[in-house]
Amino acid sequence: MIGPKIQELRKRKRMSLSEVAEQAGVAKSYLSSIERGIQSNPSIQFMEKVGKVLGVSVNELLMSQSDEEIKENLDDEWLRLAEDAMNSGVSKQEFKEFLEFNKWKQNQ
């Protein structure tokens, strides 16, 4: 999954395989094998180097298409609310329980 993502980002930047490999300081053959799915488990260091050249974080390289769509559909207010909840100490479990309680309450 990472290979096609790297290839897509590289093509969007209109960079050749050689350019990315050279700027990232990685072997062109290894980058090519990652893009083609021959190698599928690159190191974090590799992803950091390539990501830096492509202008994305390791997290963005690892993010699936559905994750990206979810992120695009979340507006800033939802993101701030989630951050505020996490920063105030609300756990995932507590949040799930609140949602379940709210659903139950609406059905009463």
TrEMBL record:
All residue ranges annotated as the Sin domain in the record: 65-103
Keywords: DNA-binding
Tagged with keyword Aminoacyl-tRNA synthetase: no
HTH cro/C1-type domain sequence ranges: 6-61
Molecular function GO labels: DNA binding; DNA-binding transcription factor activity; protein dimerization activity
Keyword DNA-binding: yes
InterPro entries: Cro/C1-type_HTH, Lambda_DNA-bd_dom_sf, SinR/SinI_dimer_dom, SinR/SinI_dimer_dom_sf, TransReg_Diox_bact_type
Pfam families per the UniProt record, alphabetical: HTH_3, SinI
Database matches in CDD domains: HTH_XRE
SMART domains: HTH_XRE (SM00530)
GO CC, alphabetical: cytosol
Protein name: Transcriptional regulator
